[in-house]
Amino acid sequence: MRGRFPRSTSVARLDQTPFPADITDLTHDGRGVARLPDGKAVFIAGALPGEKVVAVRTARHKSFDEARTVEVVAASPERVQPRCGHFGTCGGCALQHFDEARQIGAKQRVLMDNLERIGHVTPKSVLEPLVDAAWGYRRKGRLSVRRVEKKGKTLVGFREADPRFVADIAQCHTVIPAIGERFGVIAALVDSLDGRREIPQIEFIAGDDAIALTFRHLAPLSDGDRAKLAAFGREQGFSIYLQPGGIDSVHPLEADEPKLAFRLPAWDVELKFRPLDFIQVNAGLNQHMIQRTLDLLQPQPDERVLDLFAGLGNFTLPIARFAREVVGVEGDAGLVRRARENITHNGFANVEFHAADLAKDLSGEPWMRESFDKLLLDPPRSGADFVLAHLSLKQFKRIVYVSCHPASLARDAGFLVNEKGWTLKAAGVMDMFPHTAHVESIAVFEPR
To answer: CA torsion sign, 42 to 48 to 51 to 53?
Structure first.
């Protein structure tokens, strides 16, 4: 897409002479910030604030350069030895060299900087960061697959920092051990298949009692390959799914389809899902996040709550334990079907779900003409600017906004505070993705 990325000088024409740099800050994506003698900013992978490093350029742009660390001359006391030997090559993590306890503080600073710089707002109070297990937490993800003839094998893993390549790793420490310790085993399986060049990706997702692997394949699989996949699933305890086309083509390899679900015991809720559905990747942090959402939203027995971008009902059903009625709205029709099934599965009588594209005109939607007391938002990275601009905000006593992208939260917070007269009561971060630069956050607004 034109204009999306700044034009850069090719690596072949770059001056790659090593240069010294004093690191003064950290970028939103986990790189160190330094200034060249002419004042130009340079973002240096593998460097931390307070360090002196030697770096080489990897890209040159008009307003900034990019580089990578080749030597740490003076290390920060917050630098630690990365657990994974592939850190710096694999693009899955950006912060393994940064002390775990300090990572979340850096993410909090990213949020506050975005709120001030983009939204021109400051919260009345800053929430204590939410954290959970820092390793073996990731229960959903997409693995890239590539047959590399020069290495004589098939690679299965995350993309490298250079996304043209797949990282050659046998184990991932951030993925749940049942998957993370079997990257090499999965790669060997794919390499044994006749159709190994026709499988570009494998998606994994874990419920409480079952783990599904979905193999995307660009050509029909042979009977022999199907037999190998089935045997692998039985031996390793995985449920194998195939995806020959779009999302609707996903189906179990064998007749018996497992129950994919996770429980939220504090609210006596169990959410069923399909292999490619969206679920929060960090199960422990997800439960902390739901509790904080409830604490901030404070749903009451006489209140109606509107939950936008509701997904499977991750927040909707716990809220329904406390509110008179909850209406969930989600753009993905498949998720809405599963959410309705989850209503029945959990025996709720005070919840309803609607399918609607929340980035389009909603004036014809029946739920838009109803009245509500409180609003919960959990939008994608693009944020909730369109729907906020079209909602009747005066009806709400409180808005809680769960965000996976601090810049869009900051923009929407600026709209609510500076244009609509709301107050940003509190905001804070949640470490959904430890060791990555991903910032999950939450904010609560009240009318003035």
So the answer is: negative
